[in-house]
Design a protein that fits this description.
Blueprint lengths: L4 E6 L1 E14 L6 E14 H8 L13 E7 L4 H8 L5 E19 L2 E15 L3 H8 L4 E5 L9 H13 L2 E4 L13 E2 L3 H8 L5 H12 L4 E4 L4 E6 L2 E6 L11 H14 L4 H17 L2 H10 L15 H12 L4 E6 L6 H11 L4 E7 L1 H8 L8 H9 L6 E5 L5 H7 L3 E5 L10 H6 L3 E5 L7 H11 L1
Parallel strand pairs: 1-4, 1-7, 2-5, 4-5, 7-8, 8-9, 13-14, 13-16, 14-15, 16-17
Antiparallel strand pairs: 2-3, 5-6, 10-11, 11-12
């Protein structure tokens, strides 16, 4: 069996998004009326963490795929069956569950959450023995404890088995203020800054909190995540900041699960803890840039409409075939654009990052005439045919579409990607094409440029050296 084996232990729940639009207030109360378009459901809590372990991000220390088992209380009710069925290839080891399935339902209008309704629980495990837990943990390359305050990490039998496993195996613990403290010997504990302060009962900087908690929990390493700063990693040799690249989207829901799942996958593959945390920081940034948990549930729950939209017939055949294939599989089409005159490391980083946001990447390439109008009579230095051929040879690029206008809006209306990616230091709202993309239900994401790289600078240096 190839790939590491990962066991996720924790509190599973069912996440539901009721999505729609709101254009009026209710006549019986001053509250918005939401006209429902869809109801999306997916495993949450430890269930989401398990799914993410089976769907690793394309980052440095993370292996291609793991074999994942979820050990969690699951109630024998309709929501519990729905949760279990939605786990897909994740193997479920059920524990007894007190009460009904914990369900979080978010009512959302035009992408904004109006209210959340929680049902079920408490979800405390029932009838657990340490031998049963140890049997599931046996042979795991790494264990992820995903605590969502339901009671799993406070259960004596679960704690005994995890403590024994941590003595000789790899345990990553993602804590919760209402859960039990991590057992001694964890390879990595991953609280966010608020959870770290709650654990110590006092405020502090993320750097100081990481060091103090490593001693308190007798952990080999503690990574305190600090939002767009990155993560402060405390090990036996000290505490360092693992910085994060800035992202523009602002829905961090699920980022902690993406962080912890990427870290445990890295450690399961034998990576050093620093490399695993670096990969986890990058993976969490990609998660937020891609729209967070709500966007993830939408990608999983709603298959893309395979019927071609108006204008598709004007696209080149290879692009039409790509769209039909990806959308027929329920996949996500990502697009980005630019001149790509002299291809450099900044371009490669941006294209790789864009490709990770979906299942196929189409590059909208400015024609030679378009580049001359934008850059001046001396550009491009490489013709459009050669630029397209070089881009098409990159592993991150699935198709290239040349357009002759000064901006990509006309080409975008033909392509209608699910995600439009731009690099720069502006917000999505500042892009003139954002309204078009959002009009057909697409998403706009801005990724940071790799600093110090630009075609203009390269050409200027080349001119000085001649």
């Amino acid at each position: 069996m190839s790939g590491p084996r990962v066991v996720v232990v924790g509190d599973a729940l069912l996440d539901r998004d009721v999505t729609g639009t709101s254009t009026r207030l209710s006549p019986d109360a001053p509250v918005p009326v939401v006209d429902v378009d869809a109801v999306l459901a997916s495993p949450g809590g430890a269930g989401l963490a398990a799914l993410l372990c089976g769907e690793p991000p394309a980052v440095g220390a993370v292996p291609a795929r793991a074999h994942v088992t979820l050990l969690a209380p699951v109630a024998p009710d309709a929501a519990g069956h729905e949760l279990a069925d939605a786990l897909g290839e994740v193997a479920l080891e059920r524990l007894g569950h007190e009460g009904g399935t914990r369900t979080k339902t978010r009512i959302r209008s035009s992408g904004q959450t109006l209210v959340r309704v929680d049902e079920g629980g408490p979800g405390t495990p029932v009838g657990v023995t340490a031998d049963r837990v140890a049997e599931v943990l046996d042979g795991a390359d790494a264990v992820l404890v995903s605590d969502y305050g339901g009671g799993v990490t406070r259960d004596p039998a679960v704690r005994a088995a995890l403590a024994e496993h941590a003595r000789h195996g790899v345990v990553v613990w993602d804590p919760h203020p209402r859960g039990g403290e991590p057992v001694p010997g964890c390879a990595l504990v991953t609280p966010n800054a608020a959870e770290a302060e709650a654990a110590l009962g006092a405020p502090g900087t993320p750097r100081d909190l990481a060091g103090a908690l490593r001693g308190r929990w007798a952990a080999r390493a503690v990574a305190v995540t600090a939002g767009d700063e990155g993560a402060y990693l405390a090990t036996a040799v000290g505490t360092e900041l693992v910085p994060a690249a800035p992202v523009r989207n602002t829905d961090p829901c699920g980022a902690g699960d993406r962080f912890a799942s990427a870290a445990v996958l890295g450690l399961a593959a034998g990576a050093h803890v620093t490399a695993a945390v670096e990969a986890a920081v990058e993976a969490a940034g990609q998660w937020v840039a891609a729209g967070g948990a709500a966007a993830y549930r939408a990608r999983r729950a709603v298959p893309r409409r395979p019927v071609p939209h108006p204008g598709t017939e004007r696209l080149p055949r290879e692009v039409r075939d790509l769209l039909a294939d990806v959308r027929g599989r329920g996949g996500t089409v990502v697009a980005t654009g630019g001149c790509f005159d002299v291809l450099h490391a900044g371009h490669i980083a941006s294209l790789d990052a864009a490709r990770r946001l979906g299942d196929a990447l189409v590059v909208l390439l400015n024609s030679d005439d378009s580049v001359r109008r934008l850059k001046g009579p001396g550009r491009p230095v490489v013709g459009e045919a050669d630029r397209a051929r070089v881009l098409g040879a990159l592993r991150s690029v699935d198709a290239v579409l040349v357009f002759d206008e000064d901006d990509p809006r006309a080409a975008l209306r033909l392509l209608r990607p699910d995600v439009w990616v731009k690099g720069g230091d502006y917000t999505p709202e500042q892009l003139p094409e954002a309204a078009d993309v959002q009009g057909w239900g697409g998403r706009v994401t801005v990724l940071p440029y790799l600093s110090g790289r630009s075609t203009t600078a390269i050409l200027q240096r080349a001119g000085r050296e001649r």
